[in-house]
Amino acid sequence: MNLDNYRIKFIIGIVAFLVGHNLTNAQENKHEFSVNGGSTINLVSHGLNNDDTRSKLGAIVGISYGYYINDNWSIGVGVDYQTYRSSISFDNVNERYNTTDFDGDPFQFRYNVKNYKENLEIDNLNFPITIQYETSKGNTRFYALGGVKAGFILNSTYQTNIEQLETSGYYEQYDALLNDPKFMGFGTFEDVDISNQDLDTKMAWYSTFEVGIKHYLNKKNAFYVGLFFDTGLNSILSQKKGEVIEYPTNESPVILKYNSVTQSENSEKLRFSAFGFKVRFAFLN
């Protein structure tokens, strides 16, 4: 069984067990409707070597519903809109691979990238299933929350900036190395900017944990302040495209294609996690 699927089923199983165990002890039904918002710092895991990955600020807003089993335990569902932002930089990228040109002649395409930078932007609609525990006495209580999130990706794009790109083609059958012409895709290209390219992504799964303080303003309203941490359980990439700089085999003049480094053979995965603070305003019924 896939380890990520096992983790998800394990978390859901714990929630189901606690719900079934505590329903018999519930003395009255309590409903809590909440609106929440917060700021996040995003962490990206991709398995690349010799890179400089920088986290950027993101945001989260959402609504949730909680059903109180008793004074301490509640189960919750909700929907969150969450943004993930990150950048990846390399000083140099050198690769070579075999392909064919537009005439069908085989050759080795070579490229050297200086100062590569890629910005990732991902927007998710997350659906959390959680269980929450809070202390019993007083208007101010401590709480802890844990569960799992299913993330549907609404937008996933990357922007690439390359300070300098040098390309060439080696034709072994002629023992010739071509550094030009540019209409064949060979030469030196300065300040290459590629914006808003789509990433091929799939559904994301996260475990989530939150801890903080809940303050009852009155019998009908409460205010939460907490810290949370979401851990990505699976890679969100649906497929890999091979090379960062892709040489098209059926075009003349040649227009080079620029793939995300996270979708290249050098990347093992693309997994986002996040931590930050969250505030929540609750209406109790």
Task: Indicate the topology.
Layout: H1 3-22, E1 30-45, E2 52-55, E3 57-68, E4 73-100, E5 106-134, E6 140-171, E7 176-178, E8 187-198, E9 204-216, E10 221-232, E11 245-246, E12 257-258, E13 271-284
Antiparallel strand pairs: 1-3, 1-13, 2-4, 3-4, 4-5, 5-6, 6-7, 6-8, 6-9, 9-10, 10-13, 11-12
Description:
It is a single chain. The chain is mainly beta and 285 residues long. About 4% of the residues have low confidence. It has a single domain, classed as Porin. The protein is elongated and about 85 Å long. Strands 1-3-4-5-6-9-10-13 form an 8-stranded antiparallel beta barrel. A two-stranded antiparallel sheet has the order 11-12. The longest helix has 20 residues. The protein is built from 1 helix and 13 strands, in the order H-E-E-E-E-E-E-E-E-E-E-E-E-E.
Share of helix, binned:
under 10%
Mean model confidence by pLDDT = 86
Q: How large, in whole angstroms, is the Cα Rg?
A: 25 Å
Number of strands: 13
- Please list the strands of the largest sheet in the order they lie side by side: 1-3-4-5-6-9-10-13
Q: The CATH topology, please?
A: Porin
What is the name of the CATH class? Answer: Mainly Beta
What letter string, H or E per element, gives the SSE order? HEEEEEEEEEEEEE
Provide tags for this entry:
8-stranded antiparallel β-barrel; mainly beta; elongated; 285 residues; 63% strand
Could you provide a short overview of the structure?
This protein is mainly beta and 285 residues long. The protein has one helix at 3-22; strands at residues 30-45, 52-55, 57-68, 73-100, 106-134, 140-171, 176-178, 187-198, 204-216, 221-232, 245-246, 257-258, 271-284. It has an 8-stranded antiparallel β-barrel.
